[in-house]
Amino acid sequence: MLRKFCIAVAIVVGTAQPLLAASDVNPQADAKAFKDYFTKRFPKVPLNDFVNGPYSMDEGLRKQWQAIDAFPPYEFAVEQGKQMFATPFKNGKSYADCFANKGIGVRQNYPYFDAKSGQVITLEVAVNQCREANGEKPLDYTKDDMASVTAYMAFTSRGKPFDIKIPDDPRALAAYNKGKEYFYTRRGQLNFSCASCHVQSAGDHIRTEVLAPAFGITAALPIYRSAWGGMGTTTRRLRTCNGQVRGVPLPGGDELYRDVEYFLSYMANGLPISGPGTRP
Amino acid sequence: MRTRALIRLAVILSVGGFATAAFAATADDFKAAYAKAEAAIKQAHALKNEWTTTASELKAAKAAGDAGKFDDAVKHAQEAEALANASIAQAKEQEKLWPQAVVR
Q1: Nearest residue on chain A to B96, judged by CA atoms?
Q2: Complex ipTM > 0.95
Q3: Residue A37 sits at the chain B interface (C-beta within 8 Å)
Q4: Three-class DSSP labels, chain A
């Protein structure tokens, strides 16, 4: 009996994933290196302009964007999102009951690490958690109502600097590091990582498009994307990118999507929310 | 002379045909190949690193199998298995390589 117990303990200890020691992961150093890389590579781009993605990289595209922005295509989504905020759930509560400051001007705080669940909570996950906590069905993570409600929340937060926190908790550091790993890992049959396009090839063309720099890339989300003919969320963008390199996308709310958004948003700390955005 | 050459050609062709018939895939061959492909895909799925082309090949394998075209079905299933194995190898390799790409 004792022998079997000892074997069981040995198996559990031997196969357990060790949590990262705080000294192994240094988000502050990563963020400084990230910012330095992009500001040195693109010295003419004003710091806050990085959040405008491809428009900070290409003057011609920028002019087109400015023309489109006279009548922004995401306006309908913002209006619908505002309506959704004003409409109570069946139980009488609303989105405002789930978020600090009634959900107004809070986009810059997402994602955050929730110590209770041990998971990263993105804005989209928070919206669905709010709905489910109030007896409503979760929304599709990629577009339509989810894009509308997060567009409205982003719009109320425009200009506020990203303020992503990584608490001194090994689980939060592990989630951040998993996100960092996801970002730099090659995937799909075409063997691209997020970094292949948005670090190494930032500012370059891929077919007719200009690749956005990774620095500040989450600031404009959700976006109206001309290629989609409609709005799309952070999840939709990640899934599209996966598909473009012939990788099977993950489901909305997947841990890896949350973690990579956590990593990228932390890298953007100090940069202003610019969403909802318009993209080619 | 000419007749002998023609006879030789006929023998070669008939042997070749026989050989082909002898190696034609069966439904059991297809089931085995499909199961191997599915097992590899399951492993790739667990690593969260499946390729879209893998799923396409498996779908083609099933379609060919359903149509009784077992040679094609086995070929597609083997391709699906190869793609799944390549995606598994990619995931394992990248576990070690990704830090090299990090901006410092």
Answers
A1: A185
A2: no
A3: yes
A4: CHHHHHHHHHHHHHHCCCCCCHHHCCHHHHHHHHHHHHHHHCCCCCHHHHHHHHHHCCHHHHHHHHHHCCCCCCHHHHHHHHHHHHCCCCCCCCHHHCCHHHHCCCHHHCCEEECCCCEEECHHHHHHHHHHHCCCCCCCCCCHHHHHHHHHHHHCCCCCECCCCCCCCHHHHHHHHHHHHHHHCCECCCCECHHHHHHHCCCCEECCEECCCCCCCCCCCCEEECCCCEEECHHHHHHHHHHHCCECCCCCCCHHHHHHHHHHHHHCCCCECCCCEEEC
